[in-house]
Write a structure and sequence with these properties.
The protein has one domain. The two termini are 30 Å apart. Helix 12 runs antiparallel to helix 14. It has 431 residues and is mostly helical. The chain has 22 helices and no strands.
């Protein structure tokens, strides 16, 4: 074991501990880690900064602007009001309509928190108007926003596939890409199981009345309200959004680069006034981008120093060098699934996707299904307020305490690993 390898492993361990403790922002941890790797000679300048020019970094940033423009259009509200007309007064059908809306939006917008923030006020109004308890229905709709995110080959999956392709190329799988359709192939049963649970089973496990008082949500932001778009700008925003999505889905056939399509879409959103320049910059999740850039630099260091091979071999030895798809699948789903209940899901994914790739390289395994399980395990978390910002929002809306959240979510928490591990590893085996 060389000195550089030891230094790289120490930085890796400290980075991991910092993510878990979450005492400083994750993006700051990632940037400090990148700087430490450069100054200790574990990574060259070009490799340290490569993440900033990575096409997938550009794709993620620009897609957030496109999604922000879509959120401002009238289409989202029309989708919700249309549900009320179609149901003709049936609460069950109306509630199912909101489930469908949540499933669709969480595949268009790469943030369960944002989707929940769109759907929850509309659902709360429906519940209040029909004399139904918010406590019975707010938690299931939040689970939909989290557990069904990024399964359909739509913008959320497109963003994540770009990120995972970047990881594959960084960790030595240069000839492999992670397609947006892979998420659907490996996880489509969730689009049936989770909505059915939310419709028929979830409300039976939630409290009938609030456990803690629900504070009034009447106070919105004390500042200015966002101006409504003109008819022309609204129509332009809808057209730009769907044109961008179609071009991204069929980019290979059209011989277009995905980052260029997303960049043009984001620029058009700003040029047509769907989002103003200041809002566009605010809507880019700079912390997520910095986290991704730092993770790529760490991946380069682990690869260049040989530390990555050492970690992968250690994990391969830990599972006995097994070639059992389901044992590996369980390892890479359950550990992130448990950890992400206590630390933010993005950091868990950023840590375990590289570990998954290193282990796959050591075992000679196809990492596609395992990456999907790491992603699913680290993102489908809703048992604690630390897992995702959607949980504390839901706790406030439904009047839940932590005990109520655990009671409401234990069954679906058991269902998810069973289906993911056995189904995903059957259709996307590692060996």
């Amino acid at each position: 074991m060389t000195t550089q390898m030891i230094i790289c492993l120490v930085i890796f361990a400290i980075t991991l501990i910092s993510y878990i403790l979450n005492k400083i922002p994750m993006w700051l941890t990632a940037m400090i880690s990148m700087a430490a790797l450069y100054f200790t000679g574990c990574v060259a300048q070009a490799d340290a900064l490569a993440g900033f020019s990575n096409v997938n970094t550009i794709l993620m940033a620009t897609m957030f602007i496109v999604a922000a423009g879509f959120r401002r259009t009238s289409l989202v509200d029309k989708m919700c009001s249309g549900i009320m007309k179609l149901t003709k007064g049936s609460f069950t059908l109306a509630y199912f309509g909101y489930i469908v809306i949540a499933v669709l939006l969480t595949n268009f917008i790469a943030s369960p928190m944002v989707v929940y923030a769109i759907v929850s006020p509309l659902l709360a109004a429906l519940l209040d108007n029909n004399g139904k308890s918010r406590s019975q229905y707010m938690f299931p709709i939040m689970v939909i926003c989290v557990a069904c995110c990024g399964i359909l080959p739509l913008p959320t999956a497109i963003q994540m596939s770009g990120q995972f392709t970047g990881f594959l190329q960084t960790y030595g799988f240069e000839n492999m890409t992670f397609a947006p359709t892979t998420f659907f192939k490996g996880a489509w049963p969730m689009l049936i199981v989770v909505p059915l649970w939310a419709l028929f089973i979830g409300p039976k496990f939630t409290p009938k009345e609030p456990v803690v008082p629900i504070e009034a949500l009447a106070k919105r932001s004390a500042g200015k309200e966002e101006k409504k778009l003109s008819k022309f700008v609204d129509t332009a925003g809808i057209i730009i959004f769907f044109a961008t999505i179609l071009c991204l889905i069929f980019s290979a056939q059209l011989k277009l680069q995905t980052w260029a399509v997303a960049l043009v879409g984001s620029l058009l959103m700003v040029l047509f006034g769907v989002v103003d320049s200041k809002t566009a910059l605010r809507d880019i999740p700079w912390d997520m981008l910095m986290l991704f850039v730092g993770a790529l630099a760490l991946g380069s260091a682990l690869t260049n120093t040989g530390a990555g091979d050492l970690i992968g071999q250690a994990l391969a030895n830990a599972v006995g060098g097994t070639h059992n798809n389901y044992v590996l699948g369980a390892l890479f789903f359950i550990i992130p699934f448990v950890l992400t209940q206590f630390m933010l899901n993005r950091s868990v994914s950023a840590v375990f996707v590289p570990i998954c790739l290193l282990t796959s390289a050591a075992l000679g395994a196809n990492p596609t299904g395992l990456i999907l399980l790491v992603n699913a395990g680290s993102l489908t978390a809703f048992l604690t307020p630390m897992a995702t910002p959607a949980v504390p929002m839901c706790m406030a809306d439904g009047g839940y305490d932590l005990k109520a959240i655990l009671k409401s979510g234990w069954l679906i928490t058991l269902i998810l690993p069973i289906i993911y591990i056995f189904y995903t590893m059957s259709v996307l085996p590692a060996f």
